[in-house]
Amino acid sequence: MATQEDIFSKVQEALVDALGVEDDEVTPEATLQDDLGAESIDFLDIVFRLEKSFDIKIERGELFPEDILTSTEYVEDGKLNEAGIVQLKQRMPFADLSQFEADPMVQNLGKHLTVNDMCSFVSHKLAG
Amino acid sequence: MRWFWIDRFTEFVSGSHATAVKAVALSEEYLHDHWPAYPVMPHSLIAEGMAQTSGLLVSETYQFKELVVLAKFARCTFHGEVRPGDVLTYHAQIEQTSEDGASVKVTAHVEDRLQAEAEIFFARLQTQDLGSSGEGQEGAMRLFNPAHLLHWLRLVAVFDVGTTADGQRLRPADYGFETAAGGDGLTP
Fold this sequence. Notes:
The structure holds two protein chains of two kinds.
Chain A: H1 4-19, H2 40-54, H3 66-69, E1 75-76, E2 79-80, H4 82-91, H5 98-102, H6 109-112, H7 115-127
Antiparallel strand pairs in A: 1-2
Chain B: E1 8-13, E2 17-23, H1 30-34, H2 43-61, E3 67-78, E4 87-97, E5 101-110, E6 113-125, H3 137-141, H4 146-155, H5 158-161, E7 162-163
Parallel strand pairs in B: 1-7
Antiparallel strand pairs in B: 1-2, 2-4, 3-6, 4-5, 5-6
């Protein structure tokens, strides 16, 4: 069973390689987009590196539930509605969504994802 | 000048790897524009050769029918110079693929010398990524006229050397290309 330190260190390595950042920039609190400069295509790179490093399979939409974020049922005027937030929490139990909930603009979801969320995602996958 | 930065494939194995060559000649215009007194092939064009070698390999895994675009070079390192008279050999190996795209490791050698190495990501664009709906969608999903695409694939010898993983020759008809005599006026 991988320890939290093992998970952090492999996630850190994946982010350093995918984003070209330094080790010490990848702190647990760092956000992927604003602090580490991740763009949308980098998420595919990160997913590939995590799959290889942890020997796991990450399906499309698992890390980032695009189907919810683009659903007309859950999105109104660019914001996720109550039902959408419930769905999102079910699909992203690994992420701390409290900040996002305060202003659930769909386009901002990625901005709140932190390195810690990535580690929780991997722990969640390994436990599942 | 045509935007071909590989001369031809010498090996092309579906879903796995490909090798392509590019002979660098003093008659090529770009060599005289970079450093006129000391012609070398610019690294950016070596990167283009690596991208073309791996891009066609990835595109084949989606039957040459989808929009596969170069998303990023995750890593790219160059060693030394490429001079007129050199022959670059590009080798691309698919590392991972998914519904969203693929990652490929590519090297460029001049004889035994490693000239460049890169890790390239390709994104497979799907209909929703284009932000369009309704009519015109099918047209948007096709970047090239199929007859032109077939012509280019033949020029770089994809169908002369290409095989499936178990050694069967790749044929244009397998990808839905029309190859009837007199069909497009482009094929020999």
